[in-house]
Amino acid sequence: MENKDAVPLLAALAQPNRLAAFRALVVAGPVGLTPGVLAEQLGMPAATLSFHLKALTHAGLVDATRDGRRLIYRADFTRMNALLAFLTASCCAGQPCELSTAATLSCSC
Question: What region holds the HTH arsR-type domain (predicted)?
Fold first, then answer.
């Protein structure tokens, strides 16, 4: 990943409601959540949540699949892990630290 790839992801997360929605989807794991459940968990109106999910989807951090009449939103763990690896690639300038490698931050979902 390069700066030009990371900036849109970070920009999408740089809003409190979007960050909360993304974190809730990360907690939900690969099962994901419907917009109704997510809105209830976050105490957010459906229209507001829809706006924020669209921004996260456009950035590639979230995807949606249809299950019958329902949409299921899921965090894109591959993209999330790539962003984490990018942010920690030069951690501590190569010196030993608590985060020894970016791979230790990976989510295996």
Answer: 1-95
